[in-house]
Amino acid sequence: MVPGTLYSGSVTSRDLHLLRKAHSEASLASWLFTAPNPRVGALALCEGHVIGHGFHAQFGGPHAEENALIDAGAWDATQNTPISGVVDEMVVTLEPCSSEGGEKQRPPCAQLLLAAGIQRLVVGAVDPDSRHQSTGLQALMSAGVEVVLLPEGQAFFEALNPAFLQALKRDHRPWTLLKWASSFDGKMATDSGQSQWLSSDQSREEVHQLRALPGAVLVGYGTLLQDNPALTARPSGEPLALQPLRVFLLPKGKVPPSSTAWNVPGPRLWILEEGQAPQGVLRELQNPEQDQFFFAPKNTSGKLALAPVLQHLREEKGIRRILVEGGSSTHASFLSEGIADSLVRYEAPLLLGGNNGALCCEGAEHPRHGIQLFSEERKAFGEDLRRAFLLQSPGFHSISE
């Protein structure tokens, strides 16, 4: 074998065995936390022995290669850089990233591996993103690293990463996650509007962890009025958690004067209707350093069109992920426009009855017109059950067909 040669022919049984172990590492991650990034696993080796394991746990966090180096003791925490000579080989399920700057949250893994002194790299899959495809491998080969690409790895990787592949097709807008809590019979509140708290402390803790991922969190006017949320990330044990861009839909340009959102510093984006000006307290209390506005057109239903909002967030704010926390009408609008990618529901063991269902919209005329859900991730939080799904079809646009 010639050092620095990329090949996809026959490989040793050892390489395939190690790749499968790396995929087992990747499967420890949840797409709910990694999307729009992929689930990736890595092994760090020295003289043929695995001395470090790693996987990409959450969007914006360390990549699998970085975590494997840390686990192997090949990382200088004071300098936040690899230690050369501890690891000589790496097995990773996806080619190491090579891009830097811009929207990148982490340093390029290809550079980290070179700094660690990696001499051989076993790779499962080439990056499906055509903008970066093979660039990491080429950079490593150019530096003299022996790169082995396993033919079986691409299928393994793709089977584990439907959320990432979904997000690649929709990179013109943020990857969108709808979130709600409901009773067992699907109600988000009582008929009197009471909803706090349907979910358990453990469920709400995970929601704060989701908010702390890089991106934005959005609510409609009804939720702002009824629940008065701060929309901040407050995960326990993380007093300096990353705060999301808070986005509020205000069709009439008004905001309740007692809104908690005013009392929490941080960037806010207010979505108003085209031709509408900020009204009342929104006009009086806005802070030019924190408050920004976007004016959205109406859609065919006479509501704020949300696709332009997402395009603005992606192109002007660099937002790649957005958490939509309601309410039912806002969730329905995202689904009707076909711009929701996934959903997560926290179900309480409770029957409420009444009319406040999770979606406030015209229903499907036939089951075949419903939105198919797939790739479920399920977890118990005390008595609550969390279920997360990707959406097979984009929205309710085919209801009347």
Question: What can you tell me about this protein's structure?
Answer:
The protein is elongated, with a radius of gyration of 23 Å. The protein is 25% helix and 22% strand. The termini are far apart. The strands form three sheets. A nine-stranded mixed β-sheet has the order 12-11-10-9-13-8-14-16-15, with helices on both faces. It has a five-stranded mixed β-sheet with strand order 2-1-5-6-7, sandwiched between helices. β3 (75-76) and β4 (81-82) form a beta hairpin. α4 runs parallel beside α5 (135-142). It folds into two domains: 13-159, Cytidine Deaminase, domain 2, CATH 3.40.140; 170-391, Dihydrofolate Reductase, subunit A (3-Layer(aba) Sandwich). The protein has helices spanning 13-26, 31-34, 64-71, 109-116, 135-142, 153-160, 162-169, 201-211, 221-227, 280-285, 307-317, 328-336, and strands spanning 41-46, 49-55, 75-76, 81-82, 89-92, 120-123, 146-149, 175-183, 216-219, 245-250, 268-273, 291-296, 321-324, 342-348, 373-381, 384-391. It has twelve helices and 16 strands. The model is unreliable at 397-401 (pLDDT under 50).
List keywords for this structure.
5-stranded mixed β-sheet; single chain; disordered C terminus; alpha/beta; Cytidine Deaminase, domain 2; 401 residues; 16 strands; Dihydrofolate Reductase, subunit A; 2 domains; 25% helix; 9-stranded mixed β-sheet; 22% strand; elongated
